[in-house]
UniProtKB/TrEMBL annotation, chain A:
<dbReference type="InterPro" id="IPR011991">
    <property type="entry name" value="ArsR-like_HTH"/>
</dbReference>
<dbReference type="Pfam" id="PF12840">
    <property type="entry name" value="HTH_20"/>
</dbReference>
<feature type="compositionally biased region" description="Low complexity">
    <location>
        <begin position="220"/>
        <end position="238"/>
    </location>
</feature>
<feature type="region of interest" description="Disordered">
    <location>
        <begin position="217"/>
        <end position="238"/>
    </location>
</feature>
<feature type="region of interest" description="Disordered">
    <location>
        <begin position="72"/>
        <end position="96"/>
    </location>
</feature>
<protein>
    <submittedName>
        <fullName>Helix-turn-helix domain-containing protein</fullName>
    </submittedName>
</protein>
Amino acid sequence: MSSEDAALEALVALGDPVRRGLYRHVSGTPGEVGRDAAAEAVGVSRSLAAFHLDKLVEAGLLEVCFRRLSGRSGPGSGRPSKLYRRAEGERTVSVPPRSYDTASRLLAEVVEQAGLDGELQAAARAAGEASGGEPGCEADPVEVLRARGYEPFWDEGTLRLNNCPFHALADQFPALVCGMNLAGIEGLLKGLPGGQDWSAAMDPLPHGCCVTLETAKRTGPGAEPEAAAGAPPSHAEP
Amino acid sequence: MSDFHLAQVNVGRMLAPLDSPQLAGFVAQLHEINAVADQAPGFVWRMVDDSGADATNLRPEHDDDLLLINCSVWESVEALRNYTYRSDHLKVLARRRDWFERLADVSVAMWWVPAGHRPSMEEAMGRIALIREQGEGPEAFTFRAPHPPPPGSPGDSGHPRHDGASATEHTPAEHAPR
């Protein structure tokens, strides 16, 4: 099977709206998610959630691990729970075929070789600011970052980003791409009507985007119920 | 516990003297970033000058007053990688071109040393020279293609992607001198 066919087969599993909702919930939650929490988040029964979660595992989009949620161990601590998290690896399909990743790697390599970090950051800042100021752009930075795939979540007073939209490129050119990303987010905050009280900084965790955000006035919807309610952001699983 | 530890060296040429306004942002963060290294998991040792605080008084090439050296020892490639790219060190790394030239030649090297060994500046510069002359190999390599520790050491698993066939191959990303 070609890699395109393999990617298509995996992505077809997301055609079902319930399954897609479950995938997005698990994927956007730091740490692992249990069946009950996933079912509740999507608004389906536990057994239906379990069925679809396992289909997503079969498709290779989610991974399973077993852990006791009670935190206890030994006799009497109960059976370990089946937990789900996003699988490693990326799947991309484009029709007609496009290879923007190949082009971006080459461009990044040249920018790196030329030492143009500052120029790239300036361009990212300007682009972020321009896009934040576009008419019709959502005003709330959290929602704008969500729409751009960063998967924001609140970790007490800090907004963390569970996903790096530039992961493979950042892995290969960390200084260059992470600097570009931070500048882009700083520009975005400057351009967004609702971004004035926000600041962004680099504070990398083992996984996800290396940028964190803080706001001077975090009120109302900022205190999301689902926010830090999930499992603690422990990606420390082996 | 491995019998071998990973030594690392990189050099960087400052765009201006250390006490210039242009380097002030770098100097201001040196202490903090070195403290992050000292407390990082898998950190073993770093080279310091007579001040004992950092290596900014060392000059690896006598005729180059702007060239700084950064040399340290770690328990594994992953420990060094996590410090370099997944700690606050990334903050200064992302601003490296504000303070340091892009060197045309290879400016980084890693190699395995017996646990307890403290590399000298000459030894470290010799490893950079080795890559410049012969390319990467088991005696001197980079994050692009790490080599496993010498046989007889059960510890380090090396780098999970060091088969060299991966599409997300690493380039010799340098780390800013601290």
